Each structure stands twice: as structure tokens, then as C-alpha cells.
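Write out this protein's structure.
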Amino acid sequence: MANTFKLKTKNNVGTATSDVYVVPSSTTCVVIGVTLANTSGSGINVGIGITRSSTDDVNLMKNVPIPQGSSFEFMGGNKVVLEATDTFTAESDVNSSLDVALTIMEIT
């Protein structure tokens, strides 16, 4: 089993739910950190979640405000484990206003 640290990013996330990262087959992923940056000229409300093919989709946070020019770090020392084919998603209430940085460890 190989453990590989990676950074996955998605820029200009808007009002449509965007896939930030899809866990490859035969892989488990540990999410170590999530940083969300507001790139718009005003405050935004954001959400992140997990879409799963085999069970319930969940929101990790929903409608959380991020002021103009600020970022938000989600995790606070906790970890989230994703299984093969799980998808980490993000959305904002303003078009092209959110940048996402996802720090992960893939276990293959």
C-alpha cells in the first residue's frame, strides 16, 4: 500500500455544484485540510459535500459566509475518509467566486 500526499484544486467555483475531487477506483482518501477562498468583490455563502454512489450524499457545511477577500479553513484537526468513487464537491451562491484547495492523502 502506497500513501501519497496530494493537493487538489478547483478555481472559479460558482452556483452549480462543482466536483473538486473524485476518488479513483481501488483507492481510499483521507482529507487532511480544506481551504476555501472568496475571490469575488463581495461576501459569499458556500457549501461543501460528499457525493457517494453507494449510499447517502451529505453536506459537510452549507451556506457558510465568507467575507470579501477572506478565506475559510474547514477541518479543525478532523479528518474525513473518502472511499473509491466518492466525490468531494463545492458550491457558492455567486458565480465564479470561490477557489478550493483540498489537501489529501491517497492510499492505494
